[in-house]
Amino acid sequence: MAAHRKPRQRSTGGGTARTAATIALASAATATGFDGTGHAEPQLTPGQVKAKVDKLYQEAEVATEKYNGAKEKAEAAGQRLKNLQDQAARKEERLNSARDALGSVAAAQYRAGGLDPAMQLALSDDPDRYLDNAEFVERAGSRQNAAVAGVRKQLREIEQLRGAAHIELTSLKSRRAELKQHKKSITGKLGSARQLLSRLGPQERSLQGASQDRGSRSTGARDTLAAPGSASSQATGARAAAAVSYAYQKLGSPYVWGATGPNAFDCSGLVQAAYRAAGVSLPRTTYSQIAAGRRVSRSELLPGDLVFFYAGISHVGIYVGNGRMIHAPNPSAPVRVAPLDEMPYAGATRVV
Q1: pLDDT 10s digits, 217-269
Q2: What CATH number matches the domain at 214-350, 3.60.150.10, 3.40.30.120, 3.90.1720.10, 3.30.240.20?
Q3: Has 327 been annotated as catalytic?
Q4: Does residue 315 carry a catalytic annotation?
Q5: N or C end of the chain: smaller count of CB under 10 Å?
Q6: Candidate list 39, 166, 182, 267, residue with the active-site label
């Protein structure tokens, strides 16, 4: 008779101890932040919130300028594509007219008892292949030969236009993908800024808003009444004066990323709109605008000069004199007068 071993008793106490140890280790890891998600974020002071929000706004503005640049390139690619399509359509109309004329001659020849090889081109489903394979040039009359050569040339031109249009379409799709990416970055950073601001109580938010607008109200109201005329008289010319005047008229307009007026602006959009009103065409982005004129030193600044900020040239304003500018700051503040020292100064350009 086979011997049977008595099954080993599992220690319930040992399993419980191991489970408890595992839970304890997991809790310790969470408490110390080893997993990167468990510990609570420290409470930020209002000053720290403001610093983080300002950084997010600046990063959003970098993304906004990239968005503006991609949009400008997408619009240019779209216009080039439209022009190529229009050219191709016009050439196809001329080609059809030429083939119709050849077809009329072919019909007359056929009724007369024969179809000249040159005339077969007009009736071919694949005229390009026919031209490559047929040996009709020696047999075609000089007039017909010239007509067929013209058809062949038009076919080649249309194919070239279609190839160029395909390249532009590919470029347009790429630019649209860039726009989508930059838009996602902008909305994400602005959303993070709103979340941070929501941590502040109503009183702290109102105090922060007051501190942001205090400089604008204390100098802006006075400047609106007194400075436009004096700034315009000191400007480098009539167009610079007109741009400064336009900027003063837009004080208080909201900041909206990607906007170029007339009722809302981002920073480069305000500059572009002001000079457009003065009859000067400027590029869309800050990093293009800084190269649109003659660089001037800070000591040489005159009203109407463009002033740029941050190492990446991601912000721009219009100088109005006395160390101040008009600019569209960010979503937290409208178009306003501000000191140049409000942000890290990067350089200046005189466009007229």
Answers
A1: 444 433 443 456 666 667 678 999 999 999 999 999 999 999 999 999 999 99
A2: 3.90.1720.10
A3: yes
A4: yes
A5: N
A6: 267
